[in-house]
Amino acid sequence: MNIVVCVKYVPDATADPRFESDNTVDRVGVDGLLSELDEYAVEQALQLKEGTEEEVTVTALTVGPEKAADAVRKALQMGADQGVHVQDEAIAGSDAIATSLVLAKAVEKIGSVDVVLCGMASTDGAMSVVPAMLAERLGLPQVTLGSRIERKENQLAVQRDGDTATEVVIGAMPLVASVTDQSGEARYPSFKGIMAAKKKPLENYTLADLGVDAGEVGLSVAWSAVEETTERPPRTAGEIVKDEDGSGATALVGFLASKKFI
Amino acid sequence: MSEVLVLVDHVDGAVRKPTYELLAIAKRLGEPSAVFIGGADKAEGAAADLAKFGAEKVYVVDHAEVKGYLVAPKAEVLQQVADAASPAAILIVSSAEGKEIAGRLAIKLGSGLITDAVDVDADGSTTQSVFAGNYTVKAKVTKGTPIITVKPNSASAEESAGAGTVEQFAATISDAAKAARIVASNPRQASGRPELAEAAIVVSGGRGTGGDFGAVEGLADALGAAVGASRAAVDSGWQPHALQIGQTGKTVSPQLYIANGISGAIQHRAGMQTSKTIVAVNKDEEAPIFELVDFGVVGDLHSVLPAATQEIEKRKS
Ligand SMILES: Cc1cc2nc3c(=O)[nH]c(=O)nc-3n(C[C@H](O)[C@H](O)[C@H](O)COP(=O)(O)OP(=O)(O)OC[C@H]3O[C@@H](n4cnc5c(N)ncnc54)[C@H](O)[C@@H]3O)c2cc1C
Ligand SMILES: Nc1ncnc2c1ncn2[C@@H]1O[C@H](COP(=O)(O)O)[C@@H](O)[C@H]1O
Fold this sequence. Notes:
The complex is a heterodimer.
Chain A: E1 2-6, E2 9-11, E3 32-34, H1 36-50, E4 57-63, H2 69-78, E5 82-86, H3 96-110, E6 115-119, H4 130-138, E7 142-152, E8 155-161, E9 165-172, E10 175-179, H5 191-197, E11 202-205, H6 207-210, E12 224-231, E13 239-242, H7 247-258
Parallel strand pairs in A: 1-4, 1-6, 4-5, 5-11, 6-10, 7-10
Antiparallel strand pairs in A: 2-3, 7-8, 8-9
Chain B: E1 3-7, E2 10-11, E3 14-15, H1 17-29, E4 31-38, H2 40-52, E5 57-62, H3 72-85, E6 89-93, H4 96-109, E7 113-120, E8 126-130, E9 135-141, E10 147-150, E11 165-168, E12 181-187, E13 201-205, H5 214-223, E14 226-229, H6 231-235, E15 256-260, H7 266-269, E16 277-282, E17 295-298, H8 301-316
Parallel strand pairs in B: 1-4, 1-6, 4-5, 5-11, 6-10, 7-10, 13-14, 13-15, 15-16, 16-17
Antiparallel strand pairs in B: 2-3, 7-8, 8-9
Helix pairs in contact in B: 3-4, 5-8
The complex binds flavin-adenine dinucleotide (FAD) and adenosine monophosphate.
Residues 6-8, 35, 37-38, 41, 61-64, 96, 99, 103, 118-119, 121-122, 125-131 of chain A line the site of adenosine monophosphate.
């Protein structure tokens, strides 16, 4: 069985992510890492591998700048078998539509893939649309946003905790799946894993390798355009009171009444 | 004037409030047409409600070939309606499902997509709030039919009668779209409280509740508010995941947000930072949540909340 895990390199959310002058996310000047939410996908890929006697290859796939190789490396340290990094000047500034195109072409090039596993959302863009777009582009069943994932012979079943109901969704492989942060803690790389990762293959693809025209991706051909980004003004400091013998409740109710909430 | 398609979000024919908000936005862009995918027996009632909030036309698509499957058939339906109607834009509620439908539709139509808009202007330019609410972004679709998913509470639902002309629409669903089947469905128990994403007031609790949400729920009910929770409270099994607020839960933007026993981690802030007024009760005066508040009480929620609830009840009577 072949599993491809899509892992994204994102700016560290605790390091004040920001925009560049062209209104794209600054992916170079801010420290980055493997999107935390994609660690859950790597974990589930490894569990699928460990849950069967079959030969399973887990490939970590990323589309991103040079430093994005770090995201693949982290996945290799956790236990993925090999990595693929699609890197090309022309990709910079791509939106989800172009990103999903490049990912789909890379999945096709990797070949005979049974499961494409994604995170629930990238921690920077947070659109939560790439997995559905990948399923659409690849013409594969989509079993996404699983809080639990289970293999049943040639099928995968995921539990999906929706707004109004919890559902079980099932599809036959090959398919595209994504998992949420409820799917189970991701493992930390062990010392052995870190050492072993250094010897694992990491392949680089360019757009030409994938047969994607540079004119189909990147900022200039994006199907939507950011016109303006504004930093939110800091909130003005509020009033803080210490509760003493019930004074806190009285002050709180007074505040709510002054704002006409009661 | 061109039609603007609004995908109706409903539970068994009962239209949910965010759809009415979308109709109000659709009116800024053109002529609102609702797309109702559901049971034939529920269509008439839903169409009447949609007309009340401004739908000029209601496309009714029978859900026989849609309901047992995940998102893909709904994207096909919208594609076919869009091909027939050539709309000026397509609006979908920004839920997990809504965004997936929108994503697939964008690829099908070769159209640009904007997700999680909190406002849409008459010229189609959108406002989004990104990076945990630290930035505001103005963007516009530049290719094809703009597909925009809009967060609940981004506009007010306004009653304004539309013609509500019902048009039966026969969609064909491909076998490929039926490849992911829903084999079990457990509806969530209604709490009797307002929906989290739609509520004007949200009262939430975290690890500091120690697992007893009684005080949080008491205050919520006195204020007619929805109850929310931090991930710590959800992970502990105190509240269902559907009530989680934050990066991997719901984003809320109510008039008033009251955080109780919640420290204010960045992932939690991501889901509530754009609330109009923020209040916190926390016994640690150093808790980062206090950096955000308009009003804060340093104290034990188990005494502050019940006392406040009692005081509110007294004032109301
Ligand atoms: C990938 C990822 C995604 C995440 N997504 C989310 C998300 O969507 N939503 C979310 O909320 N978190 C999320 N988190 C978790 C987040 O980082 C925090 O761990 C979490 O928000 C903490 O919850 P808390 O504030 O309830 O608990 P704590 O941080 O433990 O804070 C408890 C607070 O309660 C106070 N307290 C204790 N007792 C009392 C009392 N009697 N009265 C008053 N105050 C009291 C304490 O002073 C403390 O400030 C995510 C984390 C990761 C890694
Ligand atoms: N550039 C990328 N490289 C690899 N995987 C990605 C990339 N962008 C998105 N993904 C995958 O798609 C998921 C959802 O991303 P998004 O739709 O951007 O929120 C992520 O969790 C990843 O698994």
